[in-house]
Design goal:
heterodimer; A: 415 residues; alpha/beta; Aspartate Aminotransferase, domain 2; Aspartate Aminotransferase, domain 1; 2 domains; 7-stranded mixed sheet; 3-stranded antiparallel sheet; 14 helices; 13% strand; B: 373 residues; alpha+beta; Rossmann fold; SH3 type barrels; Elongation Factor Tu (Ef-tu), domain 3; 3 domains; 10-stranded antiparallel sheet; 4-stranded mixed sheet; globular
């Protein structure tokens, strides 16, 4: 099988598998006081520090979670409650902070969490529109930040998981630092593909305590670690209300027995990625550009979504996203799958029910355009042979999918 | 694969017969319900998970294909429009006609498949002439040939019903259990899939609104009031809440729904009797009566059985293709003895023995009893 859906998940790196299996064989709850517990604790905290180092923070600033979605939930809900009530320095100021600023086209982990806060906690959403490339409109954001006293938090993707557009994170970090509001960045799609250094970003944007970039979510399985562990980076100056209560692990921010083996594997994968980030990014970008050129040559009507400019400077090195007019994305996916090539129509979704991508719609594309979307994503195991196999399978799959047409059209059986 | 036991076993049998089988679950709503939020019946997220699990057990690929827009336009909106027009549609039939054996079939053929297999209880057999015929299933109690009566020869050529020969649903459940399919004991879905809580009346009221109107006797005398004519179907007895008792003291039934006047006509059970039904939208499930050798020429009458609901008994009748007032062909069916509770919009399926000959959507009926009955 040719696997070109690395944005969904990417193969575990050998060093991660090795670290995980080695740790699985050792008994010890890191919260236990005896030596076995202390051994486990040591491995856990070493792992935490190694993950932290790849993100430019201290170990104490990394909270392990069950996955990326939990990290996003903890950041958004946790910051919301913290800013609204719990430890807000002034009750009146807290009550005034009802607005959550969110760009359009965010991942469902963010959208559904914010929707929940709207429904149950009376939050107001301020949606920041995207431009045609998928970047949030900084001018609109800047205007909204004029009224900073009513803002609970700003949350955004570092890079879009569907179309791969890298957001102007530094600019937003600077604007939120200046406005004195906390910023959470969902870096799950970006981690391992672009350099992330939280501390230097806070420094360069002159972030005051508790404001600017204070929280950042990542997930292990997107970088060759195991599924089932993510992390929320939480700056020392920021606080969140915990969502999970219990044994008080991880500074009471996230209770629950910690998964030492998964943390060790996460650390191994993170270090491996960080060690050759630039080389890997360059290699992937070269493969990516071959895919883009090859698709446009095979199907001239195909339309590249996201950054289509020369050099694709704000496109993730592993991301290709096309719309094929007149085709259903699910037809293309099916036919390519049958030909042994695994790609995606967008983000994996609930019960496999496909929806026209809200990301493309937010970028001003038509629903018909969104129906024919196909995402091809590269990763650490991708090779030129994978690209060749995909490009070889595409013309026939496209021709057949075009014949099958759109599910909305009239059929020859209608009467 | 709906997520139910029938389509799971149908898929298993298709695999066992040596076909190259792919499981497809139809996404018929952009916002599928979930058991957590009170949905029941079919087409929930849980159903899609059950379908995928069955496909996994069978070792076949599984995909969800989105037909939600067509389903809304051709089935849901049609259902609302028909009720608004005082007619009683059958949405499952419409779904077979427009989605499963049209949109899905056409997409499947274009993608290289040969047939759509479903868990319907019905049989496609090759008749004496060599042409395909649609027949009732062996499992009499579960027979679904009625809702497939809309299929044409072209559609039958690509339809595959692996459960047609099975004697009972119980056998299908036992087979599912033997095959390790987790849906072996899953309850049947009876409701209309797009009405999550089964409350058709409430759902329709939501869509078309409620407007108080008169309930009248056939004489025209007002005998009560209602909150929206669309909530009533011909033959209905319950929920009339009539203030004025009938002269004979006997229960009254809905005889007719007049949406334009927002009026519901009621009368005694005897007045439900219909002596003739006719419809200009008719089709033949394979060869027509002439090609089948049942009649010598169009316009000749022939003996048949007519069935007017999915679970009604078939009754002997005479059928004729006539020319209606506007010069168009019309299928006219005269039951040997009058039928009760026939509503315009319903489908009359015409059988010859176990064979489905064809169907018409009922446009008009002629009462078998005089007005003052």
């Amino acid at each position: 099988m040719v696997y070109l859906d690395h944005a969904a998940t990417t193969p575990m790196r050998p060093e991660a598998i090795e670290a995980m299996t080695a740790a699985l064989a050792v008994v010890g709850n890191p919260s236990s006081i005896h030596s076995a517990g202390q051994q486990a604790k040591r491995l856990l905290e070493e792992s935490r520090e190694r993950v932290a180092a790849t993100l430019g923070v201290d170990g104490i600033e990394v909270v392990f979670t069950g996955n990326g979605t939990e990290a996003v939930n903890l950041a958004i809900k946790g910051l919301w409650w913290q800013r609204r009530t719990a430890s807000a320095e002034d009750a009146a100021a807290g009550a005034a902070r009802r607005r959550i600023v969110v760009p359009a086209g965010e991942h469902h982990a963010t959208l559904d969490t914010v929707d929940w806060l709207v429904e149950h906690e009376g939050a107001d959403v301020v949606e920041i529109p995207l431009d045609a490339v998928g970047r949030l409109r900084l001018d609109v954001l800047e205007r909204e930040l004029d009224d900073a006293s009513t803002i609970a938090l700003v949350t955004m993707l570092w890079a879009n998981n569907e179309v791969g557009t890298i957001q102007p994170v530094e600019e937003v970090a600077r604007l939120t630092a200046r406005a004195g509001v906390p910023l959470h960045v969902d870096a799950i799609a970006a981690y391992g593909q672009v350099p992330i250094d939280v501390r230097s970003l806070r420094r360069s944007t002159e972030a005051p305590r508790g404001a600017g970039l204070v929280a950042l979510s990542v997930s292990a399985h997107k970088i060759g670690g195991p599924a089932g562990i993510g992390a929320l980076v939480l700056d020392r100056s920021a606080a969140v209300e915990p969502l999970i209560h219990g044994g008080g692990q991880q500074r009471k921010v996230r209770s629950g027995t910690q998964d030492v083996a998964a943390a060790a594997a996460f650390a191994a994968a993170a270090e491996s990625v960080a060690a050759r980030l630039d080389d890997d990014a360059e290699r992937m970008a070269a493969l990516r550009d071959r895919v883009i050129d090859g698709v446009l040559e095979a199907v001239p009507s195909a339309r590249l979504s996201g950054d289509a400019g020369p050099g694709a400077s704000v496109r993730l090195p592993g991301n290709v996203h096309f719309s094929f007019p007149g085709c259903e994305g699910d037809s293309l996916l099916f036919l390519l799958d049958a030909a042994g090539v695994a790609v995606s129509t967008g983000s994996a979704c609930q019960a496999g029910v496909p929806e026209p991508s809200h990301v493309l719609m937010a970028m001003g594309r038509t629903e018909a355009d969104a129906r024919g979307a196909l995402r091809i994503t590269l990763g650490h195991t991708s090779t030129g042979a994978d690209v060749d196999a995909f490009l070889a399978a595409l013309p026939a799959a496209h021709a057949q999918a075009a014949r099958a047409g759109l599910a909305t059209r009239a059929t020859s059986f209608d009467r | 694969m709906s997520g139910g036991v029938d389509s799971a076993v149908a898929a298993a049998r298709a695999v066992e017969a040596g076909h190259d089988v792919v499981g497809v679950h139809l996404a018929l709503s952009r916002m599928p319900g979930t058991l957590r939020t009170g949905s029941r019946g079919c087409c929930t997220i849980e159903d899609s998970m059950d379908a995928q699990r069955a496909a996994n057990v069978l070792g076949i690929p599984y995909y969800v294909w989105d037909f939600s827009e067509r389903f809304k336009a051709d089935v849901v909106d049609d259902f609302i429009a028909e009720y608004s027009a005082g007619r009683t549609p059958n949405p499952c039939m419409r779904c077979n006609e427009r989605i499963k054996f049209a949109a899905l079939l056409e997409k499947a053929l274009a993608l290289g498949f040969d047939a759509v297999a479903t868990g319907h209880y019905a049989k496609v057999v090759t008749g004496e002439s060599g042409a395909l015929e649609l027949h009732r299933a062996n499992a009499e109690a579960k027979d679904q040939s009625y809702v497939l009566g809309v299929l044409t020869a072209e559609q039958l050529a690509h339809a595959y019903f692996p459960l047609g020969d099975t004697a009972s649903k119980q056998l299908v459940r036992e087979e599912a259990a033997r095959r390790g399919l987790s849906v072996a004991q899953k309850p049947d879905s009876y409701d209309i899939c797009f009405i999550p809580d089964g409350d058709t009346k409430g759902w329709l009221a939501d869509k078309v609104g409620t407007e108080q109107g008169d309930i009248v006797a056939r004489s025209g005398a007002v005998v009560g009031s209602h909150d929206g004519a669309h909530a009533y179907t011909v033959g209905q007895r319950r929920g009339l809440r009539l203030g004025t008792p009938a002269a004979d003291g006997k229960p009254r039934f809905v005889l007719e729904v007049r949406p334009k006047e927002n009026t519901v006509v009621v009368g005694p059970k005897a007045a439900l009797a219909v002596g003739l039904i006719a419809g200009s939208r008719f089709s033949w499930a394979g060869l027509d009566p002439v090609a089948s050798g049942i009649v010598g020429s169009v316009g000749e009458s022939f003996d048949c059985d007519v069935q007017i609901r999915a679970h009604a008994d078939p009754v002997p009748a005479r059928a004729t293709v006539e020319t209606d007032a506007s010069g168009d062909p019309e299928l006219v069916i005269v039951p040997d003895s009058p039928l009760d509770g026939v509503a315009p919009g319903q489908t009359a399926v015409v059988y010859v023995g176990s064979r489905v000959l064809g169907q018409c959507t009922i446009d008009r009926t002629v009462s078998a009893v005089p007005v003052d009955a």
